Amino acid sequence: MESVAKILVVEDNALNIKLFCDLLTAHGHECEPVSDSRDAIDAARRFAPDLVITDIQLPHVSGIELMELLRADEALGKVPIMAVTAYAAQGDDERIRAAGASAYVSKPISVLRFAEAVEQLLDTASRDDQLSGNPVPAPNEPSGA
Ligand code: MN
Fold first, then answer.
1. Residues with CB under 5 A from ligand 1 (ion)
2. How much is the pTM?
């Protein structure tokens, strides 16, 4: 069963905002769009997203800078980030991942690939939550073993 997630979308292009939010809501998720990346950190603190999707090519605060700010934030540092980029040149993959992205999707997006990447990140995040929230006790070692 797919769980409902809160997803913050940082994207300066209105058509992409509509496309991404339509896709996310079609999968039952709640989409919070932010078109000006300077507002993204405040919006993220308010909205407490389960996942952040960010464009890389953004005016003012680039997607790379935004990911670094998110990663450095105490409350938001562990929220998974999916980057979306139009120009994936050689080396970009590493640069994007080094900045904190858990996954990235190239534009123009494949609807299927986009949806798969979102669900995969949410699955991984909820598994990690369960692991950290309900630690499985270590089996008792027989004494003297
Ligand atoms: Mn852009």
1. 12, 55, 57
2. 0.87
